[in-house]
Amino acid sequence: MEMMNTDDDSLCEDSGNETSGDDVDFNVEVETSVPKESQSYDDEYQYEVLSTSDIVQYMSDIIDEVNSVLQLPPTTARILLNYFHWDKEKLMERFFDGDQDELFKEANVINPFKKIPVTGKPKLSLKIRGTEECDICFMVFAPSHMTGLECGHRFCYQCWNEYLTTKIVEEGVGQTIACAAHNCPILVDDETVMRLVKDTRVKIKYQHLITNSFIECNRLLRWCPSPDCNYAVKVAYVDFKPVVCCCGHIFCFACGENWHDPVKCSLLKKWIKKCDDDSETSNWISANTKECPKCGATIEKDGGCNHMVCKNQNCKADFCWVCLGSWEPHGSSWYNCNKYDEDEAKAARDAQERSRAALQRYLFYCNRYMNHMQSLKFEHKLYSSVKDKMEEMQQHNMSWIEVQFLKKAVDILCKCRQTLMYTYVFAYYLKKNNQSVIFEDNQKDLERTTELLSEYLERDITQENLVDIKQKVQDKYRYCDGRRKALLDHVHEGYEQDWWVCKEA
Amino acid sequence: MANIAAQRIRREFKEVIKSEEVAKCAIKVELLNDSYTELKGEITGPPDTAYEGGVFVLEIKVPETYPFNPPKVRFITKIWHPNISSVTGAICLDILKDQWAAAMTLRTVLLSLQALLSAAEPDDPQDAVVAKQFKENIEMFQMTARHWTNVYAGGPHVNKECDDKIKRLVDMGVEEHQARVALSSYNWDIERATEQIFS
Ligand SMILES: [Zn+2]
Ligand SMILES: [Zn+2]
Ligand SMILES: [Zn+2]
Ligand SMILES: [Zn+2]
Ligand SMILES: [Zn+2]
Ligand SMILES: [Zn+2]
């Protein structure tokens, strides 16, 4: 979900001070409950949004830090860090406690402290003295046109460029490109790659590959999940908290999903898996079918007659759609089931009922969840209709700042929808107790006020007198946001007090 | 064709021509077109193996991105070997896949293939039927491979018994190669081979 840029909200709130007296309490509450948008929902949770070049810088800072102790060439340090998934402590520990030769060998880098003799001697051309032959293109060059790694395998610049480009572009290899010689495991360091690759696009791809492996093995970093967004978010500790990317996308740092308060990551994950599950979808379709009480085949009622004949050709059981008992005792009263309480029929019904009830329950929550998700998508259209309204109002002597409340109203509406959506996931896994009843009341309240706000912004607003609109809209969205906050506070309190008992569903 | 690739093949071609293996008639490369994209390779069966005395022809296709990607090589001569398909001639060899290195050459490829004929890798098979026979009945495998070498690669070891069994199936109207494949796959059990052909 993409939020509109709302940097001007503080201005909007300031200009909202001329509201009438009885609104003051609300106003104060709203001031504190609505944070400065797109910066943070939660002031205590510190994070930074990093661009690709910030990440590159961050990586080299870590390398410098490690090197202040280890005193390695930076390129070697980078290869070692990558080998230890950027865990500095682990690297230091291995470096000082273990066999260093073994460590360098494992990480496929030459031990910089040991000047071992070059393994592959430069292949001197027999034809012309003072020249070398490249083992890839077989051409003869002056030594200054040849280059290689510490392993001693040398190739010409053109071949290096081609070789690295093939690895990066075709095979998508970043940090772990090995020397071009056969059976030589020594890794090509990043500086060498950047020096030898000519094409800028290939360089960019390479940088992305190496930052990607860095981000993926660092728990405190996460790419913004928004498509085509190249920012990453860095935190001090992993938590179930919302972070706002520079692109405007708001997501949960712990799991990367859209911000999903009040439901916790693990349950949301479970829920999404459940929704994606094919068997659930097929259950959905079968909501208006029943299973044959004898063989279990799925039967659809195709007409008004309650006398069902199983479609399974090996079963062909006759049964009653209403009671699920066998058809025989229904006899001549075929038009009317009067066997509802017979034992056999009751047992069959109970078994079916239990699985149906679970399905019905799932469908109930799923429908509401989907419904808010759908509405949330539609609300984005509201932004454009509201924009027209804002222009109209500006033509009636209202300033640009004064009309921002309308956009703010849609922002709040979207937030409420999103919260509501996830309350249904929370509720689905919630066991009933006194607190869950309060939660459901809060949910009902928020749902009602959200629908009112939505309806007002979508329809009623067109008929209102321009002067009244501002007051009414502000009252409504403040009330709505207040309900949202009350619901979330109650859930958060419950997390702290251990009120919530999870249902195994 | 890319500059490096053409340059390389031209040079490699010369390298093979003047190599000592050619002098010993062990490997050979021929150009099939002027653009160096298709070549014909030849290797002789290594001594003291079932392939001894045979000459095996290879199809070599050089990709645009050579030598940064390996050449595509397959056997044209039919061969009975766990790592080479008896049907298509496709080869299962690491250096022709992920273990390829830009500094390797056609010469190293041909020598590696020759080495593969001396030392099969039945645990990484290309032809499951052959690999099974190799592991379960090595003598039967040797005999079959030698027979194939004789028939398809000009090897010296004529096996009268095999030829007779094939003739019996051919007399029944079975195509000769099909008869040889069936008999080879069923350890030269003529009844089971017949059953398989006519089932
Ligand atoms: Zn070169
Ligand atoms: Zn090397
Ligand atoms: Zn983003
Ligand atoms: Zn989460
Ligand atoms: Zn049935
Ligand atoms: Zn009934």
From TrEMBL, chain A:
Annotated EC: 2.3.2.31
PROSITE patterns listed in its UniProt record: TRIAD, ZF_RING_2
GO MF annotation, one: ubiquitin protein ligase activity
UniProt entry keywords in alphabetical sequence: Metal-binding, Repeat, Transferase, Ubl conjugation pathway, Zinc, Zinc-finger
Catalytic activity from the UniProt record: [E2 ubiquitin-conjugating enzyme]-S-ubiquitinyl-L-cysteine + [acceptor protein]-L-lysine = [E2 ubiquitin-conjugating enzyme]-L-cysteine + [acceptor protein]-N(6)-ubiquitinyl-L-lysine
Pathway(s) the chain acts in: Protein modification; protein ubiquitination
Alphabetized SUPFAM superfamilies for the sequence: RING/U-box (SSF57850)
Gene3D superfamilies on file: 1.20.120.1750, Zinc/RING finger domain, C3HC4 (zinc finger) (3.30.40.10)
Domain called RING-type: residue spans: 130-341, 134-186
Any single Pfam family the record assigns to this protein: IBR_2
Location of the region described as Disordered in the Swiss-Prot/TrEMBL record: 1-26
Keyword check for Cell inner membrane: no
CDD domains membership: BRcat_RBR_HHARI-like, Rcat_RBR_HHARI-like, RING-HC_RBR_HHARI
PANTHER family found in the cross-reference section: RBR FAMILY RING FINGER AND IBR DOMAIN-CONTAINING
Recorded family membership: Belongs to the RBR family. Ariadne subfamily.
The protein's name in its UniProt record: RBR-type E3 ubiquitin transferase
Natural source organism: Zophobas morio
UniProtKB/TrEMBL annotation, chain B:
Cited InterPro entries: UBA, UBA-like_sf, UBC, UBCD4_UBA, UBQ-conjugating_AS, UBQ-conjugating_enzyme/RWD
One of the record's GO molecular function terms: ATP binding
Top class in the EC scheme: transferase
UniProt keyword annotation of Nucleotide-binding present: yes
CDD domains named in the record: UBA_II_E2_UBCD4, UBCc_UBE2K
E.C. numbers: 2.3.2.23
SUPFAM superfamilies membership: UBA-like, UBC-like
Keyword set, alphabetical order: ATP-binding, Nucleotide-binding, Transferase, Ubl conjugation pathway
PROSITE patterns: UBA, UBC_1, UBC_2
Active site, per annotation: C92
Entries under Pfam families matching the protein: UBA, UQ_con
UBC core domain location: 4-154
All residue ranges annotated as the UBA domain in the record: 157-199
Keyword Flavoprotein among record annotations: no
Family according to the record: Belongs to the ubiquitin-conjugating enzyme family.
The name this protein goes by in its record: E2 ubiquitin-conjugating enzyme
Originating organism: Zophobas morio
Source organism phylogeny: Eukaryota, Metazoa, Ecdysozoa, Arthropoda, Hexapoda
